[in-house]
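Audit log entry. Action: structure prediction of a protein-small molecule complex. Ligand: flavin-adenine dinucleotide. The ligand was supplied as SMILES and no pocket hint was given, so placement is left entirely to the predictor. Protonation state taken as written. Sequence taken verbatim from the request; no trimming, no tag removal. Recorded inputs:
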Amino acid sequence: MSMSPIPKTAPFAEEEIDLLNRVVGTASPVQRAWLAGFLAGLDASGAALVPAHPAGPARPAEPLTIVYASESGNSEKLAGDLAKAARKNGLKPTLIDMADLELSALTAAKRLVVIAATWGEGEPPARATRAYNELIGEGAPRLDGVEFGVLALGDTAYAEFCAIGKKIDERLAALGGKRVADRVDCDLDYAEPAARWIGDAVKALAPPNAGRVIEVDFGAKPAAAPSTDIFEAEITEHVDLNSSRSDKETIHLALSFEGGAPAYEPGDSLDLYPENDPAYVDELLKIAGLEGDEKLRTEFTKSRDVTTLSLKTVETYASSTGHQYVKALLDQGQAREWIAGRQLIDLIATFPIALDADKLRALTRPLAPRAYSIASSRREVGDEAHLLISAVRYESQGRARKGVASNYVAEGLKRGGHVRVKLKPNKHFALPATDKDVIMVGPGTGVAPFRAFVQERRATEARGRSWLFFGDRTFTHDFLYQLDWQDALKDGSLTRMDVAFSRDTPEKVYVQHKLWERRADLIQWLEGGAYFYVCGDAKAMAKDVRAALVRAYADVKGLSPEAAEQAVVTLEREKRYLQDTY
Ligand SMILES: Cc1cc2nc3c(=O)[nH]c(=O)nc-3n(C[C@H](O)[C@H](O)[C@H](O)COP(=O)(O)OP(=O)(O)OC[C@H]3O[C@@H](n4cnc5c(N)ncnc54)[C@H](O)[C@@H]3O)c2cc1C
Ligand SMILES: Cc1cc2nc3c(=O)[nH]c(=O)nc-3n(C[C@H](O)[C@H](O)[C@H](O)COP(=O)(O)O)c2cc1C
C-alpha cells in the first residue's frame, strides 16, 4: 500500500508534503474521514487553524446543513459561528448561502439549521428570493424527518418583524421536518440571544453520544458578539451637495483615520454610531415628567433608541403601567395601525401616566448604528473614507420628524469634529476583474458606492467599460458629485453616463426609464459579460429597475415574459446582477 497519498504537486513546500504524508499516509479511513470533515468545516466557518485546537472524536462526524439568508452579513456571520460550535460538538457542518441553495440539498439533509433575516417590508434578502420562493412554493419537496431549527433576524421597528424566519420555520414543519430547536426572533441587538440560541440548537442537534463534547462558554464572550474595532474618525469635509434651493440635504462626509483607515474595499459600508437629537430627548423627558433626571438624559442621548415605536414597546407600556386605553388598543387589535408614522414620544404624549426612569428605559432598546455605503476608494483617497448621507426629514401625525443618524450627521456634526464608525464589509457587492464591463444603477444616495467603483477603476487602470445611471430630483440643485462624474468621463474611468431628473420635466423620468431607452446597448453589454449593480431605494426603485431589465430582455431579444424573467434569474445566479438596497 502506498504511504504517500499527498502528491508532490500539492500546494505545499516539499518538507510540508513529507510531514503530511507521515500523518495522512498511516491514518485509518476513519481518521481520514474525520480530518476531511474537520478541515471542510474549518474553512466553511472562516476560522483560523490553531494548532492547540482540541481534538474531536476519532470517528466520522454527523452532517449538519446550515443555510443562511442574509443581505448585510449578520446571518452569514452567525452561520459561521454556528458551524464553529457545531464542529466542536461532533457535527460536520456544510454552509450554504440561500442564494445558491438547491432544494435537493434540504431533502438530503439529516439536520438543518436556517438563519434568516427579513428585509424590505417583510421580504427575504434580495439574493435569497429565488430559493425562498421555491421553498414556500407548491413544488417544494417533502422533508420528512429532517431535524431542524430556525433563527430569525429582524428589527422590531418593522411591522413584519422577522416575517421570513417565521415563514421558513412554519414551512419546514409543514413539509414534514421535525423541529428540535424552537425559533428565536432577534431584534437589532441580536448578539446575545443569537449566541444563546446557537449554543442550545447545537446541543439539540448533536448526535446523542457525540463522544467528546466541548462546552462553549457563550456567557463570557458570545460567539456572535460584534467585534470591537470601532474607529474614531475626524471629519475633514462636511459639505451639503444639494444647492441651497433644493428641498433635500445630502452631506458629503470625508473621514480621516489616525493610524490608517479600516481596510475597506469598494462596495463595503461603514456602520456609523449616532447620538439622539438633544431637543427630542428633552421633550421626551418633559412629557414623561422626568426632565430633572440628568443621568437618564445622557444615557438617552448617547445610547438608547428613544424614537422607535414597536408593538413590543406598546405591549411593555401596557403591562408596566396598566394603562387602560393602551390595553384596549392592543385587545382590539388596533395597535399595529396606530403605531404607523408614530414614535415613542407619541405613545407617552397620547397616553400619559406616572413613569419612573426604569419604566421609561424599559421602553427603549440599545441605539443601533446605521450603515452608509463608502463613496471612496482607498487607492485614491489613502487613509480617508467618504460617505454620502441624505438627511431624513418628514412630517407625520402633525409632528416634524428627523431621522436619528442622518440628522446627527447633517445638524450635529461639523468639520473638525469626530464620529465613531465600524467597517461593514460586503463581499457580495464587489467589483469584478478589471477587464469586465460594469453597469451601475444608483439614483440618490445609491450612487455612493459607484463613486468608490469609479475611483477604484481609475486607480487600477481597468480596461473594462463602466456605465452609470444616476437620477435625482433636479439637474440644477440635486446633481450629486456632478464634477466627479465629469472628470471621470474625461479620463475614461467612466465610459458612459445616463441621468434622469424626475422634477425637470412635466412627466417624471426615473432611472428605470433611462434603462428602457438604452435597452439595445444595455442588453448588448450584458450579453458581452457585463456586471449589473443596483444601489439605493429598496421599496420602489430596485423592483422597478429589475422589472425594466426583464422587459428590456423581452423586447431586445424577442423573448416571452417567462424567458426574459429567466434571463435575469440567470444573471442573478451567475452573480452578475448585484444589489445593495435599503
Ligand atoms: C447597506 C446600507 C447602506 C446604506 N447606505 C446609505 C447611504 O450611502 N446614504 C444614505 O443616506 N443612507 C444609506 N443607508 C440608509 C441609512 O442606513 C439609514 O437608514 C438612513 O440614513 C436613515 O437613518 P436615520 O437614523 O437618519 O433615520 P431613522 O431614525 O432610522 O428613521 C428612519 C425611519 O423613519 C421612518 N420614515 C422615514 N421617512 C418617512 C416618511 N416619509 N414617512 C413616514 N415615516 C418615515 C421610517 O420608519 C424609517 O425606517 C444605507 C442603509 C443600508 C442598510
Ligand atoms: C432596508 C431594511 C429593511 C428591513 N426590513 C425588515 C422587516 O421588514 N422586518 C424585520 O424584522 N427586519 C427588517 N430589517 C432588519 C434586518 O432584518 C436586520 O438588520 C438583520 O439583522 C439583517 O440581517 P442580515 O445582515 O443577515 O441581512 C430591515 C433592515 C433594513 C436595512
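Audit: result stored. The CA atoms of residues 269 and 373 lie 4 Å apart. The longest strand covers residues 231-240.
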